[in-house]
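From the methods appendix. Each design record in this collection lists the tokenized structure first, followed by the designed amino acid sequence. Records were kept in a plain field format so they could be parsed without special tools. The example shown here is representative of the layout used throughout.

RECORD:
FOLD TOKENS (419 positions):
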């Protein structure tokens, strides 16, 4: 992934953000002890027979941070930089994210340290199925429901669903979300994260009395979330002037043709060399003067060393944890309006919840029903966070964490402790 230098540990960031919000809300120490740390951590060995016949051992993880408000929910990522601390951080953020949008899930996350770009489809299938069998005791439609994440997709979820179902002896589509439509997936799930980002940007523009039509946008990371956000902003009349992916960055001060860029990336796998654009560096991309910056890559891409150069008025965190706490403080001093990740990118888990509900009810919705429900959830959640931001005079990230942590704290106090 082509990003600026990553600094710090994602899990340390997650804990620091928790402590900052918990201090701001004077959270009871006993409650902190019960909700701060993961409930379960599983590390598994994943031996896979590669296409050339040799066995390669991968390492995989599944972390359940909280099941206080419902089944654990969180994606599975395949990436060479996957570590246990990263997975713990992502599971922690998932807990607060589900609570912010008020859906009855807790947080989980999974991952395998691997490089899927250098693996065949058959190797990926064998690895996915072996990993699924290793985490089988933890997952299930009423226990822990995986979903796609970085370098995983609907096909990955189909393999997981099939492996789980074959073990149980009957089809269980509700064990994962983000599945193909033909296996019980939901219409609108593929674009859900990007749509959620778009709806929160709309709300931020309304709050700041900024016109979205004509606004300039920079998108860092042109995967699923970044490309769909860019597409929706382009359709709304915004001007996307720069985007980046793992190969490079492209820029056009007059605006990029986003539908053509998406088409080219689907054909050749990268944005580098897009016609009517010029190459720029990742640092130049972040420093571009624009109305909206959408970090949609990996964690910690904006940090103490580069935050001051940002030229955006709004930062919409489509990725998980793209800003470090030090970057937050710098942007706050500059007056940049940050839409925090646990609010901004919660569209994916929200429509995952919709998919899970449809699977459990065996009744499926039209795409427009999904979009309408998602828009209502995202804009209501934005208003809830904004209200705390204004009343308590705290940054939006702390406001979002106060909302999410507060709902989890209420649930754990009501349930008490057993035995």
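DESIGN:
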């Amino acid at each position: 992934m082509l990003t600026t230098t990553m600094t710090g540990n994602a899990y340390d960031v997650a804990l620091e953000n928790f402590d900052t919000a918990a201090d701001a809300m004077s959270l009871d120490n006993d409650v902190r002890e019960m909700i701060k740390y993961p409930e379960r951590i599983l590390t598994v060995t994943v031996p896979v027979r590669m296409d050339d016949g040799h066995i390669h051992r991968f390492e995989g993880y599944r972390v359940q941070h909280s099941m206080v408000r419902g089944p654990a929910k969180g994606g599975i990522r395949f990436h060479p930089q996957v570590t246990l601390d990263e997975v713990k951080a992502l599971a922690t953020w998932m807990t607060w994210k589900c609570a912010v949008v008020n859906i009855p899930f807790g947080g989980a996350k999974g991952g395998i340290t691997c490089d899927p770009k250098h693996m065949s489809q058959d190797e990926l299938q064998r690895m996915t199925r072996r990993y699924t069998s290793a985490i089988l005791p933890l997952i299930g439609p009423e226990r822990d429901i995986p979903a796609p994440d970085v370098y995983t997709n609907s096909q990955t979820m189909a393999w997981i669903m099939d492996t789980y179902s074959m073990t149980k002896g009957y089809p269980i589509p509700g064990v994962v979300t983000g599945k193909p439509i033909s296996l019980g997936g939901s219409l609108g799930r593929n674009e859900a994260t990007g749509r959620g980002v778009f709806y929160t940007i709309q709300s931020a523009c309304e709050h700041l009395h900024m016109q979205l039509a004509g606004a300039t946008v920079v998108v860092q990371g042109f995967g699923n979330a970044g490309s769909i956000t860019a597409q929706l902003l382009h359709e709304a009349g915004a001007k996307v002037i720069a985007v980046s992916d793992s190969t490079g960055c492209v820029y056009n001060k007059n605006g990029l043709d986003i539908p053509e860029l998406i088409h080219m990336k689907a054909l050749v796998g990268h944005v580098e060399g897009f016609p009517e654009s010029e190459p720029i560096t990742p640092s130049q991309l972040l420093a571009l003067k624009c109305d909206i910056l959408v970090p949609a890559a990996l964690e910690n891409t904006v940090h103490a060393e580069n935050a001051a150069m940002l030229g955006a008025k709004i930062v919409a965190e489509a990725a998980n944890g793209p800003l470090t706490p030090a970057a937050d403080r710098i942007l706050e001093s500059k007056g940049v309006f940050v839409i925090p990740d646990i609010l901004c990118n919660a569209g994916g888990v929200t429509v995952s919840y919709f998919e899970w509900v449809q699977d459990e009810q065996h009744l499926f919705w039209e795409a427009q029903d999904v979009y309408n429900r998602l828009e209502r959830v995202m804009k209501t959640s934005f208003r809830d966070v904004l209200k705390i931001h204004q009343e308590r005079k705290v940054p939006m990230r702390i406001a979002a964490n106060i909302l999410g942590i507060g709902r989890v704290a209420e649930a754990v106090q009501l349930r008490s402790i057993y035995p």
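APPENDIX NOTE: Residues 367-392 form the longest helix (26 residues).
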